[in-house]
Amino acid sequence: MKAIIPAAGLGTRFLPATKEQPKEMLPVLSKPVIQYVVEEAVSAGVDDVLVITGRGKRAIQYHFDRSLELEDLLERSSNTDKLRQIRAIPDLANVFYVRQGRPRGLGHAVMCGAPHTGGESFYVMLGDVLVPHNDCLPRLQAVHERFGGSVLAVQPVERQYVSRYGIIGGHEIEPGVWKVTDLVEKPPINESPSNLSIFGRYLLTPEIMRILPRVEAGRGGEIQLTDALKQLLRTEDIYAVVMDCVGYDTGNVLSWLEANISLALDTEELGHQLRESITRLLK
Ligand code: UTP
Q1: Which protein residue has the closest C-alpha to ligand 1 atom 16?
Q2: Which option is the CATH number for 2-247: 1.10.10.10, 3.90.550.10, 2.60.200.20, 2.60.40.1120?
Q3: Is 34 in the pocket of ligand 1 (CB under 6 A)?
Q4: What would the pLDDT profile of 83-120 be if each residue is shown by its tens digit?
């Protein structure tokens, strides 16, 4: 299966850091977010990744390419660990690129990948969303194989914050799996059909590529993927899988900080020291 990674957005929530650098290249610990995303795809058996890029996103292509001068330097200084890490990056997967001329919304970004997906189902993985565990895509795939249709990853959010997210409505057909009957973008709290927010990982059937060109610009003048999914609901089933791990929208400064702290606490080198630092800072 192929994966599309939209990474052409402007990242206005993270300005000024994202003025001239892609938000997908922001590091979580010492690795750019988009490398976590590609590694997650590879671990789910994806070997063909299409990154949707745009203006100011060149660093992404350089990151997944060889860096011969750096390799020479690391070789000469016998830094074998780092050399191995750097050499592994371009070998991760076949990474292809398509440019989205203007950031016209997530739906439009996905549509830019249509010629690449060849009429097959495919994953969409948001390039700024970090999912620390690798079982999300396999769970989407398992539900797709059993029930057919498109499958969305969703994450519970606190009721008071539903108006910040795209929310699904529907009913649970087995623990952690929902049949979707409605999709609402940023609903008011008292009108929200659930507290399950769409969260950055999708398995989509090819029908979405036929719908997207007909979707009119919606919120913010952008072509929204959620609007296309709503239309898809009229003709095909959509399911949702509740993720059992926390994912991070690293395009949001607070969530990016949480990702750094959470991943650092899990490492041997930093975990202990960071706990001590946090205790000191909280005094
Ligand atoms: P976001 O909505 O988080 O991206 O899109 P954004 O528009 O850059 O965010 P802010 O609000 O200005 O901070 C989620 C993913 O979809 C990509 C983004 O790069 C991000 O990885 N995207 C978004 C595109 O590729 N093209 C678009 O037109 C919009």
Answers
A1: 6
A2: 3.90.550.10
A3: no
A4: 999 999 999 999 999 999 999 999 999 999 999 998 99
